[in-house]
Amino acid sequence: MPLYIKLPYQRERRHVSEWVSLMDIYPTVVEAMGIEASIEVDGRSLMPLMKGTELRPKKMVHVTHYKGRCVASALTTEQYKLVDIRHNYEGLRNRIQLFDRKADPKEQRDIAEQHPEVVSQLSAELARALKAYKPRKVLTRNVAKGAVP
User: Is the pTM of this model over 0.85?
Assistant: First the structure.
């Protein structure tokens, strides 16, 4: 899905094919405004892309826990996405999937069986990341009243 960003001082159009996340919007806006982030976030600023330089590849961990419907976690690297499904709404149980994000950007071909060494490495990284995970303070606000935390 495309993401379009237009800065007030930006005059030139730039197209990049980098994978980004909605989590990257907050750090990007904060950096573009030239202010310090008030909280630690998982996203990264996209300003380097907007200035024509590259972003450092970032590994991302995703966790989904909808009790009774879907429990899964995933590790996304620049090239691969490993998905560890405990159970999901499609009836899959205790399944590991691996996708090559560069060769298969729509993630339609599970290549886990063909690459057991990648599965093993990424599974270990995912397990370490989940073990080290510490929940952050949730930032909430009442938008209707304009309250600021």
Answer: no
